[in-house]
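Here is one chain, start to finish.
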Amino acid sequence: MSISTLVKDSTARLAMSGRFDFHVHREFKDAYTPVLENAAVREIEVEMSNVDYLDSSALGMLMLLNERAKATNKSVTLLNSSDVVSQVLEVANFGKIFNIRRAN
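Its structure:
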């Protein structure tokens, strides 16, 4: 798994690729913590077009990110998930919790 962060104006994008599972817990937290601490950021986008696998611990990490973002008045959007990832998010009813969209 690799995670890169880009902050532009009031939006931060975490671009992820590879397997999103328990083994990347620390790396994921290390990527989003500075974004949560950045007062200029209002929206966090999690770019998932290159994520080829996620498990229940990844869902939990996304939920934790969402809770922490709400506590700092930030929104979280899940972007461009692959078909496999989209199916997992749909089964977990993440569309009721997150804004999920396809974008360029």
